[in-house]
């Protein structure tokens, strides 16, 4: 394990301590911890959805002091420029490792190169980046394209043989989750009788999901047979708009979403949603395991993909009592 310094010491004497202890770049330790404490800067997207809250909780639980970490947490309020600034701040603080849940895929090359030059490993969790693979040690994530394809296959199998009008609430523009889900979904409904009336981003939030759905209903009204929302939260926001328009969600407008957080699974069990593809947010344990290996100089895989499942209304009723998030 790299020679460590006490972050508290650095706070007291500033740059001198950094020079005095010959920081090998990224070699500082947590404040007050012993030699083996790993200081990790975690750049989270923000708090845009129920999924994000569960993911943050999972990460904070795994990167605890008891587990040998000092976690410096930053939530970027879904603003990519704020998230890049957070990563740069972690580099300046000389953390031992950076964990990043990138809001968007592009724009990471420069700051990831700065982390590499500072000898600070970056581990991606959740979404991924378009930057070169040599700029991050590993990615712990999910197969978003498969999630989109699973949702699209359910739509194709249940509605693809009769003329069906669909609207789509997309996730955050430029995020790998939204881009890849859209790709997988489009592939699955190719050649069916499904018509996409409209597709707009609701930025993974309930509020924006409701607003965009209100617009869809004003424009297309009862022509809409089906809604595909890239996450539960936008689908839950759309429920309010559908009910306000005097329509019955799950019946007049069928709804398929992705995530399977508790509120989404409850809507599914109660018949307001029709199908949910899970996207597991509990990535903390695996991410912490990978960080420890990377900091110890052990080899790790370039990516670890967490398995997902899918639920219909009956399966949601059965699964709800045991769901961890
Ligand atoms: C997916 C994650 C997405 C979720 C949304 O791994 O990045 O972001 O589907 C969340 O709920 O906001």
TrEMBL record:
The keyword Signal is assigned to this record? yes
Q: Name one Pfam family in it.
A: Peripla_BP_4
Q: Which UniProt keywords apply?
A: Signal
Periplasmic binding protein domain mapped to chain residues: 41-298
Q: State the compartments where it is located.
A: Cell envelope
InterPro entries cross-referenced by the UniProt entry? Peripla_BP_I, SBP_2_dom
Q: Which domain of life is it from?
A: Bacteria
Task: Indicate the principal place this protein occupies in or around the cell.
Answer: other
- Which N-terminal residues, if any, form the signal peptide? 1-24
Q: Which family does it belong to?
A: Belongs to the bacterial solute-binding protein 2 family.
Spell out the protein name for this chain.
Answer: ABC transporter substrate-binding protein
Whose protein is this, by species? Answer: Microbacterium mcarthurae
């Amino acid at each position: 394990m790299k020679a460590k310094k006490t972050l508290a010491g650095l706070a007291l004497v500033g740059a001198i301590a950094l020079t005095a202890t010959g920081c090998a770049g990224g070699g500082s330790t947590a404040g007050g911890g012993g030699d083996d404490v790993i200081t990790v800067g975690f750049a989270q997207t923000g708090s845009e959805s129920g999924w994000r809250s569960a993911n943050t909780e999972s990460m904070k639980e795994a990167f605890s002091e008891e587990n040998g970490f000092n976690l410096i947490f930053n939530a970027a309020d879904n603003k990519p420029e704020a998230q890049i600034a957070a990563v740069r701040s972690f580099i300046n603080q000389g953390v031992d490792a950076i964990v990043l849940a990138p809001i968007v895929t592009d724009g990471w090359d420069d700051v990831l190169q700065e982390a590499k030059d500072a000898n600070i490993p970056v581990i991606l969790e959740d979404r991924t980046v378009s930057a070169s693979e040599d700029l991050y040690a590993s990615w712990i994530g999910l197969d978003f394209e498969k999630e989109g394809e699973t949702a699209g296959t359910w739509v194709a199998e249940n509605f693809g043989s009769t003329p069906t009008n669909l609207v789509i609430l997309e996730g955050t523009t430029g995020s790998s989750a939204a881009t890849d889900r859209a790709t997988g979904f489009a592939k699955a409904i190719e050649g069916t009788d499904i018509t996409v009336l409209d597709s707009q981003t609701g930025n993974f939030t309930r509020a924006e999901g409701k607003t965009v759905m209100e617009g869809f209903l004003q424009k297309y009204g009862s022509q809409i047979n089906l809604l595909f929302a890239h996450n539960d939260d936008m689908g839950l926001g759309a429920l309010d708009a559908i009910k306000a328009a005097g329509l019955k969600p799950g019946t007049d407008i069928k709804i398929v979403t992705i995530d399977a957080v508790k509120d989404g699974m409850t809507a599914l069990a109660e018949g307001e949603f029709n199908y949910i593809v899970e996207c597991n947010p509990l990535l903390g344990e695996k991410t912490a395991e990978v960080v420890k290996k990377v900091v110890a100089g052990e080899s790790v895989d370039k990516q670890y993909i967490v398995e997902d499942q899918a639920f219909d209304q009956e399966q949601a009723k059965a699964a709800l009592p045991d769901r961890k998030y």
